[in-house]
Amino acid sequence: MDRFTPPYYGYSRIDESVVLITYRCRTVNSVRGTDRVDALLQELSTGDPQQVLERWSTDALAVGHGSAA
To answer: Is the residue at 67 inside a domain?
Structure first.
């Protein structure tokens, strides 16, 4: 029996150069720049969205970019 895992991560595209990544409806990171936004959206279209958003939010925080809410 598979367990249902609710989608905790989400994102909102503010404009062509900004995407906000959320976790449980709270902003955890922002992706800025058209190249980075395009790369994120490409990954989202081909991979598991929850894993992609988790990686993008934690990678940015690990190197000191973005913001934790």
So the answer is: no
Q: Is residue 68 part of a domain?
A: no
The pTM score is 0.77
Query: Is 29 part of any domain?
Result: yes
Which residue range is the domain that position 46 belongs to? 9-62
Residue 4 lies in a domain: no
Tokens of 45: 């279209």
Euclidean distance between CA atoms 3 and 25, whole angstroms: 22
Using H for helix, E for strand and C for coil, what is the string for 11-46? EEEEECCEEEEEECCEEEEEEECHHHHHHHHHHHHH
**Tell me: the pLDDT tens digits for 55-66?**
999 875 555 555
At 63 the three-state DSSP class reads: coil
